[in-house]
Amino acid sequence: MSDKKFELTDLSSGKKSLLPVRSGTIGPDVLDIASINKDHGVFTFDPGFGVTAATESKITYIDGDAGVLLHRGYPVEQLAEKSSFMEVAYLLLNGDLPKQEQLAEFTSSIRRHTMINESLLRFTNGFHHNAHPMAMVSAVVASMSAFYHDSMDINNPRHREIFAHRIIAKLPTIAAAAHKHSLGQPFVYPRNDLDYCSNMLHMFFSVPCEEYVVDPVAAQALDLLFILHADHEQNASTSTVRLAGSTGANPYAAISAGVAALWGPAHGGANEAVLAMLEQIGTVENIPKYLAMAKDKSSHFRLMGFGHRVYKNFDPRAKIIRTACHKVLQKLGRTDNPLFELALRLEEIALQDEYFIQRKLYPNVDFYSGVIYSALGIPRSMFTVMFAIARTVGWVAHWQEMISDPAMRIGRPRQLYTGCPARDYTSVDNR
Ligand code: CMC
Fold it and tell me: N or C, fewer C-beta in 10 Å, the chain?
């Protein structure tokens, strides 16, 4: 608690109260308004949670004005350059970078949980071949609560740890099952001799009739994208996981709720929407027409992959991915990539436009990620699933932090009621 205090005065009654201020380790202070209902009989009104901290957290820090993103204090740029997805997962879950033997133990535990129950596979087969993979993944993850309900005591730290390892390990297997189902190809079982991303690529792209060798360039590119998507503090899907989990619900059900929230185009679904938009724009000559549409409030068209609730500067993840696009396309021998060229021009033109400058709209993490996923052969409908695989780590870290906090309470927002005041029921023949 800081020494600072704010005074709240009800001008109609003259009643005053002091509001304490809480300081984090970095970032703006927050006003503790817990007492205002008791003191003044009012609630606060903040639709969209624009200025409301719903929780205290030690996991991730964002300074949106400066374009800074830290995981457990480490800048995302350093993690992207020097770390691996498994190491970042350990860091987010446990608070510190692992020592050699801790990393080996963690990685080995994840590898040993990659298989899914055969009955879960049959669930996937029940979907129509053109079902969206996010619908399949969300449903299959929710159904895991039926498989691990009795053995899942959320108050038992060991149970929570097993849950964490299981869900992180099985998400790529579930995603690959959805992908193979949509192709009509046989499911490929996980290979525990491969690292996390190589195993995922193997399950996605190998077929029983010929040998498939994972391209290390592809595995490395995927690992980078997974690091960049692993967590992003209290975003919509993470807040969904927390809210669902705060009821004491089975955590697989809470993660499934997170997958569903991620799917929307304003959130993780933007990566799929960006590629669709670039294909729709087609050529550089059409950019002005689409920019005009994005600025026209009656068109409902937004520049997908642009803008962010928190970043009013470059999204640091977008910068890293743009640089990675150049390198990955070059290493894969795909330098002639018209969609990437179009995305670069679109960014350049939008960033010189007064509308985007005034509103501080910059490319976000989803603007360039689809270019890399496409170059790796991942179909557009699977882009948001890739995001979900990586973000599962963040969801689990936040769920763990919430459940292990003795002060945890059920999440229960209040409202400003603007409906009909109380009135008496009239029977149907008198209406
Ligand atoms: N294209 C055109 N105008 C935009 C855009 C855009 N992409 N984003 C925001 N604006 C305008 C908006 O119309 C508003 O204008 P005005 O002040 O004239 O009414 C102003 O900028 C502020 O926008 P907002 O909707 O109040 O901002 P928000 O914080 O509520 O929304 C956002 C943030 C990310 C949902 C929004 O910028 C957006 O829809 N972007 C496109 C979708 C997207 O790329 N989403 C991925 C987000 S990053 C990854 C993730 O979270 O998963």
Answer: C
Per-residue pLDDT, averaged over 12-29, amounts to: 95
Grade residue 178 by pLDDT with cuts at 50, 70 and 90.
very high
Q: Mean pLDDT of all residues in the chain?
A: 95
Token pair of 269 as six digits: 């679904």
| Whether 395 contacts 241, CB under 8 Å | yes
User: What integer pLDDT is reported at residue 254 of this predicted model?
Assistant: 98
Whole-structure pTM value: 0.96
Q: Binning pLDDT at 50, 70 and 90, where does residue 42 land?
A: very high
CB 59 within 8 A of CB 72: yes
Q: Which of 195, 142, 190, 147 is nearest to 170 (CA)?
A: 190
Residue 394: CB partners within 8 Å, gap ≥ 6? 59, 60, 92, 230, 231, 232, 238
Residue tagged active-site, from 71, 181, 267, 308: 308
d(Cα 411, Cα 39) in Å, to the nearest integer?
22
Residue 308 appears among annotated catalytic residues: yes
Atom nearest to 367 CA in ligand 1: 44
CA distance to 81, 111, 194, 279, 295, per residue, from 307 (Å): 25, 37, 37, 20, 13
pLDDT band for position 3 (50/70/90)?
A: confident
Ligand 1: does its nearest atom lie under 6 Å from the Cβ of 403? no
Is 366 annotated as catalytic?
yes
- Which residue owns the Cα nearest ligand 1 atom 51? 267
